[in-house]
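Q: Hi! First time doing this. I have a protein sequence and I read that you can turn it into a structure. Is that right? Here it is:
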Amino acid sequence: MANNNTVSNNITTEDYSTSISPVWTVPIDSTSASDKSVLPFNTNLELQTYDTFISQSASDIDDLPPNYFDVSIVPNGAVLFHNDVTPYTEASKAEIERNRKGVLSFDQLIDKNPDQLWLYFMTYLNEKPKLDVNIHGYYIEYYTERESYQDSRGNRQTRTERKSRNVTEFNISIDLSPYICEHWWRVAVIPSAKAQMAGEAVTLRDALEQYTLSNKKIKEIVLQKQLHGWNQEELKNKLFALVRSTGYQNNISVTYHALNYQIVARSSSKLSRFANSTVARVLCCISCLCLIFGPIYYCLRSIGSTRDNIIAEYMTMKPVDTFLRLNAEMIIDAVIQRSHKYYIARFA
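A: Yes, that's right. Below is the predicted 3D structure, encoded as structure tokens:
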């Protein structure tokens, strides 16, 4: 039950109590029976992990990416596993927008109906995240440039300035998608510090109901996808050493680029659509309104966001060393040839 405290400007703050709930599935009659689009699903729900390498835990969390959420702190009863969810045969009908981050919906269908919001998340959890690793080799080139300027007396003067720029020698991107399991493994809500102190176990159902019960004009709920099984810092160091083994002595940069890593739902209100539009952001940036509208906008976004982080984990199917063994020759050849190409990682 929500306790509503109404304040000025018609903004409502809401506090929801939570409880441990049973696994939640979409009722059979939650969607229209007409125009069904049947999705294929794996009838064998045992995840194919092959020689899955699970090395990440709370003990080595400091070695993980800065945006990694440690699911091990969530009580077992609050974690939803893929094998525990009844497969569905009809995809969410919510209208979506796609971008590099993933999918976004402002559809009214999922504003107030937790069953439809559940189906929306289940539908797009079937799309695994994508991760590319980029290996960039370059050297720094120094040069001088003459530029004119106006001195304090208003006279035009010229001066020589020494500058530097990076000159790329090779730039390799490798798609790591073949190593990511097709099915999500588990979904958990990382409780806020306040919830942890209170000993609350927040389930996915709790988070969805909190969102759908809210009457705020600006609100959003975000599910973040992350990989489990690879220490990305370890892989970065091994790729660095592999490039050095070719005799390459100049600068090396190894970075990761994630795609399709979010599922987002936002209020269908006109205010929400406008506040999240490109037009609103541009107007805020190019006018003095940013001093007034900016703080108000970010305050509303903060109040409207769900209080917890929802995380879905996808397992990697082979260890880092297997990836290196199968792809080392390709990487070495690309470095020697000074390649500027995009590759798909070899899996077998």
